[in-house]
Write a structure and sequence with these properties.
The protein is mostly beta strands. The chain has 1 helix and 20 strands. Strands 1, 2, 4, 7, 10, 12, 14, 17 and 19 form a 9-stranded antiparallel beta sheet that branches. A hairpin with a 6-residue loop joins β15 and β16. It starts with a helix and ends in a 21-residue tail after the last strand. The structure holds calcium ion (4 copies).
C-alpha cells in the first residue's frame, strides 16, 4: 500500500517537473503576461504597472539557472501601442534573504517595499529590434543565490517587471531554464504569483485558467478582478465544486466575490476558468486577478498547479454555501 502511494506521488512530481517552467504554463492557456508603462491609463487593463513572479529551484538541483524572457522589448511585434512606442520596462531579479519571505514581498500592492532581497541582475528595455519576438536570458545564477525556503522545497528567485516610463503595453513570457540559449526545464521547478496581470485570447473559444492553491487554513475565499470589460464569466471548479460563477468587472473597475471553501478543497488547487463572451467578441483584453483567504493572505497562482489540474468528480456531494 505504501509503495503504491509513493508511486502515485512520483507521477505527480514528474507531471509537475515537465510543465513547471514556462510562465504562463500550457495548463493555463494564457497568451501573454502584461505590464504597462506607468503613464498608461489603467483603463487599458493594468492597475499598477508592475508584476512579480517567484520561481522555485529544487534544492537538489546544482546546475546553472537562467530566467529567460520572450519579447522583453516594448515595440515591434506582440506589444500594445498607444500613439507611438515610448515605454520602458525594467526587469529585476532578486535572491537572498527576504526575496520572498519578507511580508511586503507577499503583498499585491507595489507601493509598499516589495523589492526586498538582493538585486542579482536588472535590465531595461524600450523599443529593441534585437529582442523583439525573441528571447533574452538573465543569468547564469547559482541556485543558492535564491532564497532558501524549505516549505517549497528549494530556492526562490523573485522577478519583477515594472513599467518605468511611457503608456504602452508590454506583452511577454518567462521560462526558467538550465540554458541561456534554449528553453530546457529544471526538473521539479515551478513558479507562482499573487497578482496575475495577463492578456486573454482574442478567440472567444479559448478558455484560460489559473490555479490558486487553497491553504489548509482557508475557510473563505475573496477574489477580485479588474478591467474584465464584461468579457464573459469566470467559472470556478474543483474536485467537489461543479461550478461557481464569478461576476466579471467592467471597464477600469474592480469587482469582488466571496465564497466558502469546501473541506474537500483544502490543500488543493482550484480551477478558475475564464470563459469569454462570444457576442460581442472582446479583443486585446488585459485583466488583473487576485484571490485572498479570510485572513487576507494572498493565495498563490502556481503555473503548474499543485496536485495537478483539479477535475470535478461526479457523485461527490457539492456543498454550495455561497454568498
Ligand atoms: Ca515586441
Ligand atoms: Ca506610447
Ligand atoms: Ca514585449
Ligand atoms: Ca481589460
Amino acid at each position: 500500500m505504501n509503495k503504491k502511494i509513493v508511486f502515485i506521488a512520483g507521477l505527480v512530481f514528474i507531471a509537475v517537473s515537465i510543465k513547471g517552467q514556462p510562465v504562463p504554463s500550457p495548463e493555463e492557456n494564457i497568451p501573454w503576461l502584461v505590464t504597462f508603462g506607468k503613464k498608461a491609463d489603467t483603463s487599458w487593463g493594468d492597475n499598477d504597472f508592475s508584476q512579480v513572479w517567484f520561481f522555485i529551484v529544487p534544492e537538489n538541483y546544482k546546475g546553472q539557472v537562467f530566467i529567460r524572457v520572450f519579447d522583453p522589448d516594448v515595440g515591434g511585434a506582440n506589444d500594445e501601442v498607444k500613439g507611438v512606442f515610448d515605454t520602458r520596462v525594467q526587469y529585476s531579479i532578486y535572491g537572498g534573504k527576504d526575496a520572498y519571505s519578507h511580508p511586503d514581498a507577499q503583498e499585491v500592492n507595489p507601493k509598499k517595499n516589495f523589492k526586498t532581497g538582493t538585486l542579482l541582475q536588472t535590465k531595461t528595455f524600450g523599443v529593441d529590434p534585437a529582442y523583439d519576438n525573441k528571447w533574452y536570458s538573465f543569468g547564469p545564477f547559482s541556485p543558492t543565490q535564491g532564497e532558501l525556503y524549505p516549505k517549497y522545497g528549494g530556492y526562490i528567485f523573485k522577478v519583477v517587471c515594472e513599467g518605468i516610463d511611457g503608456d504602452d503595453g508590454n506583452m511577454y513570457r518567462y521560462f526558467m531554464s538550465t540554458s541561456g540559449t534554449a528553453n530546457i526545464p529544471i526538473e521539479g521547478g515551478n513558479a507562482f504569483t499573487h497578482e496575475y496581470t495577463f492578456r486573454l485570447h482574442d478567440n472567444p473559444n479559448e478558455i484560460s485558467h489559473i490555479y490558486p492553491y487553497v491553504d489548509p487554513e482557508s475557510v473563505k475565499i475573496k477574489t477580485a478582478n479588474f478591467d474584465w470589460d464584461n468579457d464573459g464569466i469566470i467559472r470556478v471548479t474543483s474536485e467537489v465544486r461543479r461550478e461557481q460563477i464569478i461576476q466579471v468587472s467592467g471597464e477600469n473597475v474592480w469587482v469582488t466575490h466571496e465564497f466558502n471553501v469546501d473541506e474537500g478543497e483544502k490543500g488543493k488547487s482550484l480551477d478558475f476558468q475564464f470563459i469569454k463572451s462570444k457576442n460581442p467578441v472582446v479583443k486585446n483584453n488585459n485583466v488583473v486577478i487576485t484571490v485572498q483567504n479570510q485572513r487576507g493572505d494572498n493565495l498563490k497562482f502556481w503555473a503548474s498547479p499543485i496536485g495537478g489540474v483539479p477535475k470535478y468528480k461526479y457523485g461527490i456531494e457539492v456543498q454550495k454555501k455561497t454568498k
